[in-house]
Each structure stands twice: as C-alpha cells, then as structure tokens.
Write a structure and sequence with these properties.
The protein has helices spanning about 10-30, 35-80, 85-130, 135-150, 155-165, 175-190. The protein is an all-alpha fold and about 190 residues long. It is globular and about 50 Å long.
C-alpha cells in the first residue's frame, strides 16, 4: 500500500476501518465495553466488502482472518484478561484486513497489530498498577490465574473463575490498546514500506 493511500479516493476503506476502531476505543474507555452493534457491524461489513471486491476468495480470506483474530485473543478472554467486545473488535479488524490485504499479507498484519497492541496494553496496565498502587491485589490475581490454568478441568471453569474475580479488579479498557496497536501498525506499514 502506498503512502498517499489515506488521501486517495480508494483509501476510503482505511478511513472507515479507522472510524470503527476509534469508536470502539472511545466507547470502551467511556463504558468499559465495546458494544455488539459496533463489533458485529465491523465484522459483517468487512466480510461483505471482501465478497464484493474479490468474490469467494476474498470472503474466504476475510473469514479466516476474522477467525485468526478470535484465536489470538480467546485465551486472554478465557482467563479474564479482557471482555468479549475486545475479542469481537479484533475479529472485525481481521475481517477488514482480509478484505483490504488478502489472506497471506493480512495474516501478518493481524498478528503484528495484535503484538503491538499487547505491548501498548502492557505499558498501560503497568501505568494503572502504579497509579492505583494495589500491588498485593495484582499479585494475588496473577497467582489465582496461574493456579486456575494449572488446576482447572476445562476452559469454561477458568472462565467462570475469571468472571468471579472481575468485580474486584481494576479494568483496562482494552479497546484502546487494540485501536492504537492496529492503527499504529498500519501507519508503520504506510510510512516504512518494505
């Protein structure tokens, strides 16, 4: 993708994708949830766009990257590290990236965007820990998560225990790091072409 793509007439899909991601981040910061109307609209529009542009092969790429987004975040969701809306937001990003870049290139964009989001999320989480100064609570939550992973009989049991811990935790609206990671990686690709 060329540097001027956002300003070009054909750059409208990146503008729409950016609007979806920014809306998700803002709503998540405001309400600590990314609503279904936004995430399902994001997923569906990405799939439709892929089908219109590239037919079945585009739809297949978009669908697979939607699933790839789910697979990357599902374990974090299962241990209570984020909400379902964050997972669905990443799935919507995958659907759009499949439409815009195809399967091969899109696979790496979703993965590297996720990695950058994880780094940004870690930095923000560290900032929250310093701000709230509840080190003992954070250490105890971490111990409980590790214990649950080691002893639980199923993922549903891990998830159930995570939901019980959630009211006692300081929550990071993870839509923000996802938005920053995805858009940051796309900007890096535009500014630093390979």
């Amino acid at each position: 993708m060329e540097t001027g793509i956002l300003l070009a007439v054909n750059g409208w899909p990146l503008i729409v994708l950016t609007a979806f991601l920014v809306a998700g981040a803002v709503i998540d910061c405001w309400q600590l949830r990314v609503p279904n109307w936004l995430t399902f609209s994001m997923m569906l529009s990405g799939l439709v766009l892929a089908a219109i542009w590239d037919g079945w092969s585009g739809l297949w790429a978009s669908w697979l990257l939607l699933g790839w987004g789910f697979l990357l975040l599902w374990p974090v969701y299962a241990i209570g590290g984020m909400g379902a809306g964050d997972v669905k937001m990443q799935m919507g990003f995958g659907a759009w990236i499949g439409a815009l870049y195809g399967l091969r290139e899109g696979f790496w964009i979703v993965l590297y965007g996720f990695c950058l989001a994880a780094i940004i999320g870690g930095i923000l989480a560290l900032g929250l820990m310093v701000w709230h100064a509840r080190w003992r609570d954070y250490r105890e939550h971490t111990r409980q998560i590790v214990t649950d992973l080691a002893r639980a009989q199923s993922w549903s049991q891990v998830s159930e225990r995570a939901m019980q811990r959630k009211p006692r935790m300081v929550l990071l609206p993870y839509g923000l790091p996802l938005c920053l990671g995805f858009l940051g990686y796309l900007l890096l690709r535009i500014w630093l072409p390979s």
